[in-house]
Amino acid sequence: MSMNLRIDWQLTILLLVKVYEWSMTVASGIVIKNVEIGGKRPVVCVPVVEEEKSLILQKMEEIVELGVRMIEWRADFFTDLMDKEAVVSLLREAAPIVKDTVLLFTIRSIGQGGQARMEESDLSDLLCRVADTGVIDLCDVEYFDLEHAESLMASLQERGVRVIASQHDFMKTPKPERMWDTLASMRAGGADIVKLATTPEEAQDILDLLSVTARFHNSYPKTPVITMSMGKAGVLTRVSGELFGSAVTFGVVGRESAPGQIDAVKLQEILDQVHKYNE
After folding, report:
1. Closest CA to 189 of 222, 154, 228, 145
2. Strand partners for 246
3. Over 90: is that where the pLDDT of 15 sits?
4. Which residues are known catalytic residues?
5. What would the 3-class secondary structure string for the chain be?
6. What is the pLDDT of residues 169-193, one digit of tens each?
7. Which residue has the higher pLDDT, 22 or 223?
8. How far apart are CA 8 and CA 14, in angstroms?
9. Distance (Å) of CA 278 to CA 73, 216, 244, 257
10. What digits encode the pLDDT tens for the residues 197-255?
């Protein structure tokens, strides 16, 4: 009897070990088109900031051919942004191009560093119509600038689109607890992914952002977090996601959409080297 009991405990311990090992290999974040966002390695995302339809589609094709797995269409640069049918039509033409590439749709407002000036009702209607196309995988929502951000995010999610709630500060880097509260509030509001971009005034600002990023990632591993410190001084934050938990980093193919972005091919090479020495 005692021998059988000992063998049962051995099997139980072995099973628990195997379950633990399996759990460590399961995606901790979100998987879209076989791309894991929020796992061990950050995903390189390239923004498209061209203004004309033909150039936008051409740039998407160029980015896909480079092997980039995630594209952000910065639709606020699109000359026909206020023509909803034109936006929808472009996306439908882009569908075969991005069929295997994660597509993030963003309309960045002037107040958040973009080009768009839209009433909230118009913005919400356009984002929902875009979501209805079934072409986009992710949609950016400027959480603190919209009165009804949470209901908009819920509407987008009901349409099968994951939401990145974002906040950008082009003037400074807030205090650590303020940054934590910003990320936590967006998560509590229902975002699938939370994003915070800040501007450093000194080296400590960069360290503070990295510390908050790591703390949030460890506290909420099921909610991918994206952070970056903009400008040349913040370049470290764009290549250290694997070490501190930032899920996505933005690279450039041609024209940048924010200060401090790195050429996408070089960025991927750097990330590969970081991963090599972090295995």
Report:
1. 154
2. 225
3. no
4. 168, 195
5. CHHHHHHHHHHHHHHHHHHHHHHHHCCCCEEECCEEECCCCCEEEEEECCCCHHHHHHHHHHHHHCCCCEEEEEHHHCCCCCCHHHHHHHHHHHCCCCCCCEEEEECCEHHHCCCECCCHHHHHHHHHHHHHCCCCCEEEEEHHHCCCHHHHHHHHHHCCCEEEEEEECCCCCCCHHHHHHHHHHHHHCCCCEEEEEECCCCHHHHHHHHHHHHHHHHHCCCCCEEEEECCHHHHHHHHCHHHHCECEEEEECCCCCCCCCEEHHHHHHHHHHHHHHHC
6. 999 999 999 999 999 999 999 999 9
7. 223
8. 10
9. 31, 20, 12, 29
10. 999 999 999 999 999 999 999 999 999 999 999 988 889 999 999 899 999 999 999 76
Contact 106, 65 (CB under 8 A): no
Q: How many residues does the chain have?
A: 279
**Whose structure tokens read 């699109």?**
78
